[in-house]
């Protein structure tokens, strides 16, 4: 889920860019991830069965942060990796070609584990459907759970997150962008009209 920037028309009569507004700052994101980490531990009765798989791009950074928080509580690391879903998307033929991301499954694999998928924004649910298909080609986990930083609604498939940093009601003319220090130099979640800048569906 990489940020998409709108190209503005050179026409001087075009409407000015609408500025985005911050709905989560760095401290909000930190608290949300800490809460998610504790909820994962509580639901799964510890860290032993858990494997975290981040969905590129920013889901990977979020998964690593959740892993660090779990390790701080449990005193042990949690297997953490990444899961590229590009070739499993049902819209792959409808959008411009995109480069493959990295899939990195921890050495112990996922068979019999509780796999927690981690993503930045849950929207239509189609990315998560693709992730479930990708997992099916890798192994057979005991269970699959979903953690997202932001749930913005507008689901097109019957998919629900188990752990949510923030429920953010939006309209379809708005976009949500997650910025993380690892990729963008700062932590923030922004919302703007699709005609605005720094926006992501």
Account of the 3D structure:
25% of the residues lie in helices and 23% in strands. A 5-stranded parallel β-sheet has the order 3-2-4-5-6, sandwiched between helices. Strands 1-8-7 form a 3-stranded antiparallel β-sheet. The chain is built from 4 helices and 8 strands. It has 201 residues and is α/β, with parallel strands linked by helices.
Topology:
Layout: E1 21-24, H1 26-44, E2 50-54, H2 58-74, E3 80-82, E4 114-122, H3 126-136, E5 143-151, E6 163-167, E7 174-179, H4 181-184, E8 188-193
Parallel strand pairs: 2-3, 2-4, 4-5, 5-6
Antiparallel strand pairs: 1-8, 7-8
Helix pairs in contact: 1-2
Keywords:
201 residues; alpha/beta; five-stranded parallel beta sheet; three-stranded antiparallel beta sheet; 4 helices; 25% helix; 23% strand
User: What is the averaged pLDDT score?
Assistant: 87
Helicity, as a percent range:
25-40%
The total count of helices amounts to 4
**Overall geometric form:** globular
Order of helices and strands: EHEHEEHEEEHE
User: Termini distance?
Assistant: 8 Å
Derived structural class: alpha/beta
| Low-pLDDT windows of residues | 1-16, 196-201
Biggest β-sheet description = 5 strands, parallel
The tally of strands reads: 8
Strand content: 15-25%
| Radius of gyration using CA atoms only | 17 Å
Give me the side-by-side strand order of the main sheet: 3-2-4-5-6
């Amino acid at each position: 889920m990489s940020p998409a920037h709108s190209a503005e028309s050179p026409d001087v009569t075009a409407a000015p860019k609408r500025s985005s507004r911050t709905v989560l700052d760095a401290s909000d994101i930190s608290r949300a991830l800490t809460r998610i980490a504790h909820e994962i531990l509580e639901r799964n009765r510890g860290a032993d069965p858990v494997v975290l798989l981040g969905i590129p791009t920013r889901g990977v950074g979020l998964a690593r942060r959740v892993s660090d928080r779990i390790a701080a509580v449990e005193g042990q690391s949690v297997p953490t990796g990444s899961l590229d879903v590009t070739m499993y998307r049902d819209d792959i033929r409808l959008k411009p070609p995109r480069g493959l991301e990295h899939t990195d499954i921890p050495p112990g694999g996922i068979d019999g584990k509780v796999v927690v998928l981690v993503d930045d924004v849950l929207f239509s649910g189609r990315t998560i459907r693709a992730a479930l298909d990708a997992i099916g080609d890798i192994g057979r986990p005991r269970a699959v759970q979903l953690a997202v930083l932001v749930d913005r609604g507008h689901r097109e498939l019957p998919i629900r997150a188990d752990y949510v940093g923030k429920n953010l009601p939006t309209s379809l003319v708005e976009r949500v962008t997650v910025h993380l220090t690892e990729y963008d130099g700062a932590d923030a979640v922004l919302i703007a009209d699709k005609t605005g800048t720094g926006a992501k569906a």
